[in-house]
Amino acid sequence: MKINNSSNKIQVRDLQLVTREAIGHMKEGEEEKTKSYSALIWTNKAIQKKDIEFLNDIKDLKIDQKTPLRVLHRRPLAVRTRIIHSMETRYVDEHHFHLYLKTQAGTYIKEFVHGDFGRTKPNIGSLMNMTADILELDVESVDVDWPPALDD
């Protein structure tokens, strides 16, 4: 493929034209998709490693999210139930830790961390009984089998 031969900084795979029907099929499965994220979290109170370890044991946590204030101008007001499938923590220092999340697609991660003034319940802040905020957020993966793999 011309793109892959022209650079070692980016690689493309399974590039193809798709039908409207195929796009519709992909959109239908959006609720079932999972996404993985890594985030750097700040806490207002000093923490120790033991203060965050309980998050690792929480599985398939149901949360209710009102449309976040930051997107309300472009999305309708609604309450959406989303699932946090798993969390993994890595202690950094007394006010910071890394949080690795696997969530249902459509989950507002920033709001799950800081709570969006009580609009996302529960949230990391409420679970830890302190103020939490997100300093960095990276999408690590989108787990969906699409588009179809092509033979090389």
UniProtKB/TrEMBL annotation:
<protein>
    <recommendedName>
        <fullName>tRNA pseudouridine(55) synthase</fullName>
        <ecNumber>5.4.99.25</ecNumber>
    </recommendedName>
</protein>
<dbReference type="GO" id="GO:0031119">
    <property type="term" value="P:tRNA pseudouridine synthesis"/>
</dbReference>
<feature type="domain" description="Pus10-like C-terminal">
    <location>
        <begin position="2"/>
        <end position="143"/>
    </location>
</feature>
<dbReference type="Pfam" id="PF21238">
    <property type="entry name" value="Pus10_C"/>
</dbReference>
<dbReference type="InterPro" id="IPR020103">
    <property type="entry name" value="PsdUridine_synth_cat_dom_sf"/>
</dbReference>
<comment type="similarity">
    <text>Belongs to the pseudouridine synthase Pus10 family.</text>
</comment>
<dbReference type="GO" id="GO:0003723">
    <property type="term" value="F:RNA binding"/>
</dbReference>
<dbReference type="InterPro" id="IPR048741">
    <property type="entry name" value="Pus10-like_C"/>
</dbReference>
<dbReference type="InterPro" id="IPR039894">
    <property type="entry name" value="Pus10-like"/>
</dbReference>
<dbReference type="GO" id="GO:0160148">
    <property type="term" value="F:tRNA pseudouridine(55) synthase activity"/>
</dbReference>
<keyword id="KW-0413">Isomerase</keyword>
<keyword id="KW-0819">tRNA processing</keyword>
